[in-house]
Amino acid sequence: MSAAADLTVARLSTEEGERGMPYQDSKGLWTIGIGTLLPLAHDEMAMLAKYRLAGKEAELSHFDWYMGLDPPRQSVFLDLAFNMGTGKLLHFVDTIAAVKAGDWQRAHDELLNSQWRKDVGDGRALPLAQILLTGATA
Q1: Average pLDDT score over residue span 42-52
Q2: Are 18 and 4 in contact (CB under 8 A)?
Q3: Sheet containing strand 19-24, strands side by side
Q4: How far apart are CA 120 and CA 62, in angstroms?
Q5: Cβ pair 57, 89 in contact under 8 A
Q6: What is the pTM of this model?
Q7: What is the mean pLDDT of the segment spanning 106-117?
Q8: How far apart are CA 115 and CA 97, in angstroms?
Q9: Any idea what the Cα angle at residue 128 is, between residues 123 and 131, rounded to 5°?
Q10: Residue 39 preceded by cis peptide, ω within 30
Q11: Is the pLDDT at 1 greater than 90, yes or no?
């Protein structure tokens, strides 16, 4: 980002305010963040997701079991950390133990034998478990 944009963001934070939850601005338009009108464009949503995923990657990078995975399997754990938080992901001790052992069938089965699966449903859980099993994304 340019120096001018950095200066503008700092000023907009004061002028517009910073709000993490949607609010109606002075004209009644739904807004979030630093004067960002809703709805968000696809690129804005993708940028926010990538920003948050970068934080999750940084958290997970401290674990050898994660760093030793191929990108498709890493993506499963990034997805889980994004969805529930890294702290809750680390409670998947049986899944992580299976990953450490390279037992992909057990990692698959343990992931599917979780409350998380019930929470998110098979539409999300089954494809992620399959990636763990095979290491393939398609």
Answers
A1: 97
A2: no
A3: 19-24, 30-33, 36-37
A4: 27
A5: no
A6: 0.89
A7: 97
A8: 18
A9: 135
A10: yes
A11: no
- Residues 6 or more apart from 39 whose CB is under 8 A from it? none
Phi, psi of 35 (to 5 degrees): 65, 30
DSSP for 62-126, written as a single string: T-HHHHTS-HHHHHHHHHHHHHH-HHHHTT-HHHHHHHHHT-HHHHHHHHHSSHHHHHH-HHHHH
State yes or no: pLDDT of 68 exceeds 80. Answer: yes
- Cβ(80)–Cβ(92) below 8 Å: yes
State both tokens at 53. Answer: 């995923």
Contact 76, 132 (CB under 8 A): yes
What the chain holds in terms of domains, given with CATH numbers, is 3-37 (no CATH), 42-134 (1.10.530.40)
Instruction: Identify whether the C-beta of residue 106 lies closer than 8 Å to the C-beta of residue 98.
Output: yes
What does the alpha-carbon distance between residue 20 and residue 13 come to, in Å, rounded to a whole number?
A: 12
